[in-house]
Structure formats: structure tokens, C-alpha cells
Amino acid sequence: CLWEFRYAEFTSEMNTGSERCSLYLYHMRLSDDVLLDVMARFRAEMAKGLGRDTNSTATVKMLPSFVRSLPDGSEKGDFLAVDLGGSQFRALEVKVFNDGKQSSQLESKFYPTPKEVIQGSGTELFSYVADCLLDFMESKNLQHKKLPLGFTFSFPCKQTKLEEGALLAWTKHFKVRGVQGTDVVSSLRKALQKHKDIDVDVLAMVNDTVGTMMTCGYDDPHCEVGLIIGTGTNACYMEEMRHIDLVEGDEGRMCINTEWGAFGDDGALDDLRTEFDRELDLGSLNPGKQLFEKMISSLYLGELVRLILLKMTKEGLLFNGKVSTALLTKDKIEMKHVCAMEKYKEGLSNTKEILTELNLFPSEEDCIAVQHVCTIVSFRSANLCAAALAAILTRLRENKKVLRLRTTVGIDGGLYKTHPQYPKRLHKVVRRLVPNCDVRFLLSQSGSSKGAAMVTAVAYRLAAQRKQIDAVLAPFLLSLDTLREVKNKMRAELEYGLKRETQASATVKMLPTYVCGTPDGTESGKFLALDLGGTNFRVLLVKIRSGRRRSVQMYNKIFAIPLEIMQGTGEELFDHIVQCIADFLEYMGIKGARLPLGFTFSFPCRQASIDKGTLVGWTKGFKATDCEGEDVVDMLREAIRRRNEFDLDIVAVVNDTVGTMMTCGYEDPNCEIGLIAGTGSNVCYMEDMKNIEIVEGNEGKMCINTEWGGFGDNGCIDNIRTKYDKQVDEGSLNAGKQRYEKMTSGMYLGEIVRQILIDLTKQGLLFRGQISESLRKRGIFETKFLSQIESDRLALLQVRRILQQLGLDSTCEDSIIVKEVCGAVSRRAAQLCGAGLAAIVEKKRENRGVEHLQITVGVDGTLYKLHPHFSRVLQETVRELAPQCDVTFMLSEDGSGKGAALITAVAKRLHNIGRK
Ligand code: ADP
Ligand code: MG
């Protein structure tokens, strides 16, 4: 007999071999090769759906759901939901408790969906939904509460917000007039407004797949896929925002509702579709549409079986060729029949009963054959579903750039839940198709309905968190008016520093440098330079050539200054410096030559001549004793004398800003400003002698080292200092000093970020509220991490990795917040710096008495050079606040080395002229 086969073959789940299959059923049995092919086709289709230019022609629509976050267990509250589009329509109340146990309480009521409602008009449909909700609320005594509501609406919708979406097309057995293309949330809202006594706020609209993922995500944080195998079939998963062309923004992830039911609507699966699939489609409400769904979902399985049985009977292969009226009736065989017939353990009794009820008079062989048909049809469903799911899992794995993916798939749907073999088959095939994914399949309890409440709960939590984060970062957002105020205050402080009466108490010290001219190109010779005051201490040999072969050659060596020396005694510090010089001279073989030396000493010094500088006070990380108030050149000379090994001609003591200005001035005579944005923050510029009251003479110009880092030390910018700035200040070596520098320079930005992160964590907004050991460590968050984290090219995953290296275990959401914090801090720094610089260029413009000023600023400093946005924001701010100045920014190449040598050369030249 054609249909003879053994029970054993059933249990071996029709692997291969059962050759006795009828010819047309042969086509329904899909080998792994075919499934891998389906998987590849589906992957291509997903990519097409995500692409901006290809989306319109894609059958798999890949609809953004605007769900960006999964539950994190801290949600709480009382939420309503209505679920429309599944097998049953229901209203729910979900209570979520933030008790650390992910507990929730659900109460619901089912309502019928009469045919006149689901195939009537839109107004009728939504007022029916509203009526049912009102009934539910009355039965639960909720009508006087204002509750947020989530709307599960399981049809393809083009969402534009979490609470806004237009229906693309009805699917399943729905066909309501006047809804397609309109926003279903506002229709629901309108219907709800008609009931005066209820006050609900529709906060979210979700697809049942998304609801399932969210519900499972509440129990299992690994859940990032939602799958429905019920009346319809569909899947959603968390996609990287940067791959979603249709939604602005690149940060984080968003759940994509694939709407995979439409896979194949362009003919992509035609080679796999059988004559029965075609016949079923023609008899459906939406012919030509949802072709993948029609091969999978429970709404169609029974009908497929019926069509096959009908044909086989007509060909005399079953029931002695006798067709019953029942067998001729559409939808007479339902999924529940298929499930019952496939209960092998119950033998053939179910099958026999069902067939008998259909007025077919089955023999035992008929029953076996029918059972087999059911198996083939439902197994194909599981196979196809597995192939598409495998494609999603592969995409997730590749997005995460991991070799093995560990993930959880949340599942809901009647077919999966009630069919005796379906889950086992699906799991097995998925694991075969994607062996490099460890998948947990989590059955969702009323996932699709509860999910809308979960989405609403998450949206609620996020809105509350957003408010808190905004409140923390708000003081970092400076308005243009505030920046203008900063500029004006800076301008006032510059004037105080220049005036004789106010100079002593000025916080912006405006130190004369005795550098009066920029290089003219005639400088030449060999010079030594020292660079002290930055991250590194360096000794340099600089060879300058003049004339036609004008060039500067430099050799340098970096020496570490140990912390105990930076913060030890002055003698120890200068002995160490001289030791380094000795090493360098030895290393270069120039110990005997008494070379002129320029000493770049990047701390505020009060100078009486170019080679005399009294340290006003240490800044940045230095705090050696017995130096403040002393002449640093004397201290260096004494240390050289103490060593008594070599002699040097110390010609100039130079601030790094001045060195930077000189270096750029060597290339561009229009450069009259030097800016440092590195460990510290400072500016110098050429000021008219007549404005410098504390230096004799009114002719020409002199470079002023502003030492603007001290701006605000009199409290004049305390209105914009945040509590985080104050914490950073209190933890620093020079509390109360350099307030502007502490808001703008590399040494402090990371520390400000760390203080904010601690606060956000304390508020439970980051790192699950846990302040890790590493976050407690001062200095752990270096400014270079700001640059890395804020880089546009960096995916969020890499941000997470950076944080991980710092010992900060972050989620995706955490990384977004950290990045936002970094951005706020560095942006404010650049804006404040820009406001200060605007004051300087405006002053220069007024000095020259011109309407428009063209000027070049020489800039050095790693913060300026390496941070991805700092320089741009700084420049934009200057342009905004000093519109009459056309400022060119010129990067300095090693200002502190080359500049010191140039200043030494100029000083030497002037000195020689003087002698002559
Ligand atoms: P200086 O100490 O002479 O100012 P730099 O100009 O090189 O030297 O500045 C060093 C400072 O720059 C470091 O203290 C650090 O705060 C900051 N920094 C280092 N790397 C980066 C980076 N990649 N992006 C932004 N800032 C950085
Ligand atoms: Mg430097």
C-alpha cells in the first residue's frame, strides 16, 4: 500500500527515507540544504527591508517599533492594555512591582470579536474596543483612575513614534474599512474620549511580537527576539540603530518588527510553494499577500491539510475516493484538529474520530496517511519558521561581532503552545541551522498582551529616567547669552590684570613675558630647550637655520618626573631636572658646549625680564615646596652649580603658550595669539605696551601670558559652576584655584565625568545603581577616554568595551548615557574656552581700531588636537561670539620646544645688538 509505514518512522520525525510519500507531498519536505537556502534568502530580504533605498520594494518590511529598551526590572506601576489582532481580543490590567523578583500581576477579560466588527468600519471597531475597555475597567473598579495604556495591535504598522502608527494592511481575518493608512492610536484615543468617565493615556502601541519579547525580557535579560507562531506568524528582534536607515540616529538598538509573514510575496518562495499553497492563497481574504505566513501559521494549517486530503481523495488515494460535503467546506479542518491528529501517543483514535466527524469513513490506513499529511504540513511550518529565525540569530551574532551568540527567544502563539511536537521540532532545526548560537526558547505567558503593558512600563521608566538625566546635565548646557556673559566677564578680568591698581588682586594675572617681537627668519644657531609643566618633561636640542635653507631641526628626549619629585621639595625637583639635562647632553655628546637655553616653564611666572621668572603658584599636578615666590631661573642655575658638571647660558624663561605663538608666528606673521588646550588651559597674546601699566614704556607690543586658568577664582563664574565642578576642585591639589581651567582642560574633564557618573549611579540611573570599585578611583576616567567614547566612528559596542576596560560593566543603555555625559562635559569645555578666546580676539580688534580683524591663533594641546569635537565647538563659539573677527586656527608643531628655541634666538639676537 502506498501509505504503509511504521510507527517508528513517525517517532524518528520523518528524517529521510519515508519514500512512500505521495509525489506532491515530497515537495513539502525541506532538506537542510533547502532550509539554509531559505535562510540566506531571508537574510537578504531583511537587509533589503532595512535599507533606505530598498525598503520600498522589500516584502519583509522590517518596521521600526520605536521600542529601544528592554525591561531592566526597575519598572513599577499599574498599567492597562488592550490586545487586538491575536486569536482573542482582551483587556488587561498589569501591575508591575519593583521588588527585585520581577513579579507582576495580571488580570484580564476576554471579549468576542464578532465578524461585523472585524469586517465592518473603523469607527465601529474602535468604539467597540473602547466599550470593552470601559466594561473591563468597571468590572475592576478602575474607571476613576488615570492609567497609562499600551495597545497591542498585531498588524503591520508604519510607526513614527512609540505611540503613533499607521496601518499598512490588514492581515489574518481582519478587514475593517477606513483604517488602512491612518494612525490607529489616535483612532483609539478618539474612541476613548467619547467615554467621559474614563481617563486613560495611550502611551505605546506594540505589535504582539514586540510584546512577547518584552514580556520574556522582563524575566530573562538575554531575550532580544520575539516570535509568534499562532493565528499569524511574525518575529521581531533588537537591531543596531546604525543599520536602521529609516530612523534618525545611530545610537543603541531598536526593536524591528520584521513582518516576515509577507516573505515571498514577490515570488521569492515560489519554487517552494505547492499547488495547495496556491489554492489556499486564492481562497483567502488577501490573495497574493502574506505567502510565508500562509505556509506557517495556524490559521492556514488545517486548510492546507484539507486541500491535500481533498485532492488525494479525488484521486482515489483516500476514503475509497468518496468526498464528503464536509471535506469540501472551506476551513472545515482547523489547527486544533491537526494538533489532535498528531498526538501519536494516542494512536489513531483522535484521527479516526475527527475524520468520522467529517463524514469520511476512514480505514486504519486512511488514518495513518492523514496523520502523515498533518505531520508533513506542520513540520514544514516548523522548518520554515526555523530557517527565518536562524537568519535573525545570525544577524544578531554578526551585529555583536561574537563567534558564539547566547540569546533568548521569547515565543508566543497557539500553534507553538498547543501542537504536541512543534516546539521540539523548531528547536532542533534551529540548533542544526545555527550551531554557533546558544538559544534559549522561552515560552511567554500571555506575552503578546502583557507585553504592551511592559512596553508602557518601560516607556514610563525611561521617561522618568530621562527627566532625571536631563536635570543632571542641564547645568552643562550653556545658552548663548550665558556664553556672552562669560566672554564679557573674561574681558573685564583681562582689563583688571593689566591695570596697576587692580593688578595685584586680579585672578587673570596678565603676566608680561618680555617677549616683544616675533621671529623674523634671521634667527640661527644651536639651542637647548627644556619643557616643564606638561605631561612630560623634555630636554631638546634645536638647530635653527636662516636664509634660503631656513629650517628647524630638533632632537629631544622625554624624561619622567616621578610623583614624589613633582610634589617633593624644590631642590629635589631642580636637581632632578639638571640630572635629566646631564643625561641628555651625554646622550647627544655635547656636554662641553655652553649652549644658550630656553626654559619652557608652563606655570604662572611674574617676569621682570626675559630671563627672570618668579613662580606665582603651582598649577596642574605640581606642588613642590619652597618654589612659590622664587625665581625659577635662579633655582635652575643653582642646581647646575650644585652639580658642577657643565654650564649653560639660560637666556629665556618661556611659557608654553608663548612658545606656541612663536612657533606659529615663525610660519605666519599674523599669529599673535597662543592657545593651549592640553593638561591645562591658557592663552597669551601680543598686547600694546601702552595698555600694560605695570611695564615701563608705551612703544610697540609685548606678549602677555594671561594665565586665564585662574579666571573665576574670585567667584565671578560660580553661577555656572556645577556641584561636580566643586567636587573636582575640592579633590584637587589647589582647591579654590584655577576654576576656569578645571572646567576646560584635559586634566579635569574626565574627573568631572566621573563625578557625574557617580551621581547618576547613586540615583539608580546607571550601572544598575552599583558604584563599582573602579568608579570610586580618582583619575580612572582619563580625558582620552572622552575622545574615544565621543568618536563618531565608534559603535556603542566599542563604548561598552572601553567602559569594560575601566572596570565599568555597562549595558547598552548605560553606554548611551555615558556618551551623553562625556559630550555634555567636553562641549561645555570647548564653549567656555571659545567664550574666553572671543574676549581676547575682540580686545585685539579694539586695540587695532578696526571694524574687522583678521588674526591667527597658534594652538597646541592634546585635548584640542585629539578630541573629536572640541576644536570644532571652540571655533564655532568664537565665530558666534566674535562675529567681527576672522580667526584662523593654526596647529603648532611642538610649540614648547621649538618656540623656546626661537625666543632664545630672538633674545640672543636682541642682546647682541644691545651689546654692539
Ligand atoms: P601638556 O601636558 O603639555 O598640556 P598635552 O597637550 O599632550 O600636554 O596634553 C596632555 C593632556 O591631554 C593629558 O593630560 C590629557 O588630559 C589630555 N589627553 C590625552 N590624550 C587625549 C585624547 N586622546 N583626547 C583628549 N585629551 C587627551
Ligand atoms: Mg604642552
Report what the structure shows.
With 916 residues, the chain is of the alpha/beta class. The protein is built from 33 helices and 26 strands. The strands form six sheets. A six-stranded mixed beta sheet has the order 1-11-10-9-12-13. It is elongated and about 130 Å long. It starts with 6 loop residues before the first helix and ends with a helix. The N terminus is likely disordered. Its main location: cytoplasm. One of its GO terms (molecular function) is D-glucose binding. Its EC number is 2.7.1.1.
Helix and strand topology:
Layout: H1 7-11, H2 23-26, H3 32-50, E1 63-64, E2 77-84, E3 89-96, E4 104-111, H4 115-118, H5 122-139, E5 146-153, E6 157-161, E7 164-167, H6 184-193, E8 199-206, H7 208-219, E9 223-229, E10 233-240, E11 253-257, H8 275-282, H9 291-296, H10 298-314, H11 325-328, H12 335-341, H13 349-357, H14 364-400, E12 405-412, H15 414-418, H16 422-433, E13 437-443, H17 447-473, H18 480-498, H19 500-503, E14 511-512, E15 525-532, E16 537-545, E17 551-559, H20 563-566, H21 570-588, E18 596-601, E19 605-609, E20 612-615, H22 632-643, E21 649-654, H23 656-667, E22 671-677, E23 681-688, E24 701-705, H24 723-730, H25 739-744, H26 746-762, H27 773-776, H28 783-790, H29 796-805, H30 812-848, E25 853-860, H31 862-866, H32 870-881, E26 885-891, H33 895-915
Parallel strand pairs: 2-5, 5-8, 9-12, 12-13, 15-18, 18-21, 22-25, 25-26
Antiparallel strand pairs: 1-11, 2-3, 3-4, 6-7, 9-10, 10-11, 14-24, 15-16, 16-17, 19-20, 22-23, 23-24
Helix pairs in contact: 3-14, 5-6, 7-17, 8-10, 10-12, 10-14, 14-16, 18-30, 21-22, 23-33, 24-26, 26-28, 26-30, 29-30, 30-32
